[in-house]
Amino acid sequence: MGRKILYLTICMCYVFFGCSKNEDIEIDTTKKQEVKNPYFTVLQNEDKVFHGSVFFDSFGDITVPKCNFEVECLKIANLKKGTLYQIKIHNDTKYVIPEKRLTMGYFYVQQDKIVRIWENENEPWNISEECINKLKKYDSVPKYSVVVCQNANVEDCLNEGEEGWHYYLESTGDECTSHLWYQYPQHSGYWESFKWKKNKGLISYRSGFRDGVNYIRLKRKLK
Questions:
Q1: How far is CA 62 from CA 54, 98, 211, in A?
Q2: 160-204: per-residue pLDDT in tens?
Q3: Is 141 in contact with 117 (CB distance < 8 Å)?
Q4: 3-class secondary structure for 116-164?
Q5: For a disulfide at 39, which of 45, 168, 180, 196, Cβ 3.0-4.6 Å?
Q6: What sections of the chain are H helices per DSSP?
Q7: For residue 73, what are the contacts with CB-CB under 8 A and spacing of at least 6?
Q8: Within its chain, how far is the Cα of 57 from the centroid?
Q9: Partners of residue 66 on adjacent β-strands
């Protein structure tokens, strides 16, 4: 009898104290209520179709092709203040586009803003599993991340032509457009722009290098 009591005591201690170290336990965020943002919609059916032009050095000396692409919003996780999505481009054309450029990036959609999650300065399109886990556990947003949609303008903090990352945001209340680019002394580096419309979602996306090098320019036809 005494041994049984001792055994039960040890088991109870394990249940209540043995699992108290939770630094390696992933926090389950899947049951959190999704936050709604009027500028972000999960594109469906014909709304997924974007039309535009693409050009990469690998295309060679050809006329810039104009094509249709399907754009998909993939839910990655529910977070503390909203939902994390990845926006991807499906390429069914005959033109070979680098795989990393077929994602527009990851977006933390909150009630009052959309944050473009950017982990690595030299890799704007993808984020690591570690970054996603930090977002889930601590709501930790990487330092290169920027707000790409909200109801307030943001002015560029750098002077025109100044070297470094330039960023500004224009909001009219009905539409919101973000602009981001790296400025070198003689030319621009990587650039990207997102345009969102209230109750419609993403309606335009552009990204590339310098003046028309390795670029994607897509626009959605609104009904």
A1: 12, 18, 17
A2: 999 999 999 999 999 999 999 999 998 999 999 999 999 999 999
A3: yes
A4: EECCECCECCCCCHHHHHHHHHHCCCCCCCEEEEECCCECCCCCCCCCE
A5: 196
A6: 2-13, 129-138
A7: 41, 42, 43, 85, 86, 87
A8: 26
A9: 53
pLDDT value for 143? 93
Closest CA to 35 of 77, 86, 89: 77
pLDDT on residue 16: 29
Distance CA 13, CA 136 (A): 29
Classify each residue of 50-60 as buried b or exposed e, where b means 16 or more C-beta atoms within 10 Å of its C-beta: bebbbbbeeee
Q: What is the pLDDT of residue 153?
A: 98
Which tokens in the block code for residue 96?
A: 């070979």
Measured CA to CA, the distance from residue 30 to residue 197 in angstroms comes to 28
Would the CA dihedral through 196, 198, 200, 201 be positive or negative? positive
In terms of Cβ atoms closer than 10 Å to its own Cβ (0-12, 13-18, 19+), residue 103 is: middle
User: Counting every residue, how long is the chain?
Assistant: 223
CB atoms within 10 A of CB 209: 16
Token pair for 135: 């977002």
Neighbours of 38 (CB within 10 A): 14
CA 65/CA 7 separation, integer angstroms: 74
List the chain residues with pLDDT less than 50.
1-30
Residue 16, beta-bridge partner list? none
DSSP string, 185-197: SSSEEEEEEEEEE
